[in-house]
Design goal:
The chain is mostly helical and 245 residues long. It has nine helices and no strands. The longest helix has 28 residues. It is flat and about 55 Å long.
Length: 245
């Protein structure tokens, strides 16, 4: 909201977007009560779906200045519900829950510290830097999901595809966002990298990434699968860097 506050005029009408916290808190409370009751087995999936819709709505809202604040609120509500549904699905032990809470708290403190210190004119590169962490988290979560399966040869196509896509998209996002941060922050030359065989390099990296996906979709044993996943992770990461450099 820092950037939006730059364009706020003294005679603008008051805003009460914070009141959206009331239905958000009520939804979280209802989800928590329903999850603890154990009577609604599909509640986690429903909460995750609602979380996704809220996040998508948040992204759509951020596309226009007139709806940006509502988009920010929608995204925040979506993330809060997403975290809650993830914890509900995992049903962690007390020790694991404590560890998760401590890590989330550390992240919240760091994010608040950085957000309060960053200047409005530096927000684009700050967003790019944080976006790289989103990609890193997506790839790490997908690989962790794959390694946590007792028998990878029994995974269905949908599960395999989700692991592969999350790994590849996360890797592209991670490296591409880092390059964007470097250019926006003046740490890298803003002029595009123009290699003679740029298109051929991109096609080769894309083919290597798709080849790894083909191996993954065959539901191989974990060693072969991890090799293919690591190959796709690396080639897609280089592709993300090369396309934005």
């Amino acid at each position: 909201t820092k950037m939006l506050d730059m364009f706020k005029r003294p005679d603008d009408p008051p805003e009460f977007y914070h009141l959206y916290g009331i239905p958000t808190a009520a939804t979280l409370a209802l989800y928590g009560a329903g999850s603890l009751s154990g009577k609604f087995p599909q509640l986690d999936a429903a909460a995750a779906t609602l979380s996704g819709l809220l996040c998508i709505g948040g992204i759509a809202g951020l596309a226009s200045q007139s709806t940006a604040r509502l988009g920010a609120v929608s995204g925040q509500a979506g993330v809060a519900l997403g975290v809650a549904s993830t914890l509900g699905h995992l049903n962690p032990s007390l020790g694991a829950a404590g560890t998760i809470t401590a890590l989330m708290g550390a992240g919240a403190v760091a994010g608040n510290y950085i957000g309060n210190r960053v200047e409005p004119t530096s927000l684009p590169q700050t967003v790019a830097a944080f976006h790289s962490l989103v990609g890193l988290a997506a790839s790490a979560a997908a690989i962790g999901d794959y390694l946590n399966v007792p028998d990878t040869t029994q995974l269905d196509g949908v599960h395999l595809a989700s692991i592969y896509l999350a790994t590849v998209i996360g890797s592209v996002t991670f490296t591409g966002s880092l390059v964007a941060f470097g250019k926006l922050d003046g740490r890298l030359d803003s002029a595009p990298l123009k290699l003679a065989a740029r298109d051929q390099i991109n096609m080769g990296l894309g083919a290597a990434t798709l080849g790894g996906g083909a191996v993954i979709m065959g539901a191989p044993e974990v060693g072969t699968g991890m090799a293919a996943l690591a190959g796709s992770l690396g080639s897609s990461g280089i592709l993300g860097w090369h396309m934005t450099a």
